[in-house]
Amino acid sequence: APDPAVPARDALLDAPRITALLGERLTGTAATGERVNAKYRVGESLRVAYRLETSAGTQTVAGRTFPGRSARAFRRAADGAIPIDGMPPVLHVPELDAVFWTFPNDRRLARLGLLAGGPALDRLVGGAGVRTRLVAYAPERAATAECRGADDRVLAYLKLHWDAAERERARAEEAFAAVGDRHPRLRVPRVLAASAA
Q: Would strands 98-102 and 57-65 be described as parallel, antiparallel, or unpaired?
C-alpha cells in the first residue's frame, strides 16, 4: 500500500531505476548496480544504500527521504561534504524528495574518511600502509571494512558506529572471554583496539 509520508518509497527501492539515475547525476552516464541496504520506517522515512558500477568505477551511495524538506536537508549536508574524485559528494533528487551521499560522506557517520587509510587507521589496526575494503554498510548507523596489510593479508575488521560502539565492543569482549581462542569448532573475533572518537 502507498505510504503518504514516503511517497517515493517504491521508486527508491527500484534498483535499475535508481542506479541509472544516480549514475547520470554522478558521472553523466547511467550506472548499473544493486541495493545493498534499506531501512524503512512506515510513515516516517526510508534509507537506502546502493553499490554502483559507474563509468568512473565502483561507488557506494546512500540516500534518505526527507518528505517536504529535502532542499533544506541537502543544503545542510552540502556544507560539510568531502569531495570525492570529481563526483558530487551530495546529491539532491527533488523529484523523489531525497538526498544522496557519495561514500565516505554520510549524514551521521562523520568518521568514514578513516577508511581511506593513513596514520590514524595504521595505529588503530596495528600495521603500516593499511588498506580497506567496505564489506557492510548501513547508512547513518554503521560501516564495516576489511583491513589488509602490505602483504595483502587480512589484519582486522574495523566497524564504525554512529551510536552503539561501546555496547558492541562490550558484547564482543564478553563473547571472546566466554569462548576463548582454543575452541575446536568456533572462532570468535578478539577486539584488538577501540576508539570512542
A: antiparallel
pLDDT for the residue numbered 9: 96
Rounded to an integer, what distance in angstroms lies between the CA atom of residue 80 and that of residue 110? 10
For residue 120, give the DSSP letter: H
**Are residues 91 and 100 in contact, defined by beta-carbon separation less than 8 angstroms?**
yes
- Among the residues of the chain, which ranges form H helices? 9-12, 15-27, 70-79, 119-125, 165-179
The number of angstroms, rounded, from the C-alpha of 106 to the middle of its chain's C-alpha atoms is: 7
Q: Which residues pair with 148 in a beta bridge?
A: 131, 154
C-alpha 109/C-alpha 176 separation (Å) is 27
C-beta neighbour count of 179 within 10 angstroms: 12
Nearest to 194 by CA among 154, 167, 175: 167
Q: What is the pTM of this model?
A: 0.88
Query: Is the pLDDT score of 98 beyond 90?
Result: yes
Reduced to 3 states (helix: H, G, I; strand: E, B; else coil), residue 20 is: helix
- Cell 576508539 belongs to residue: 195
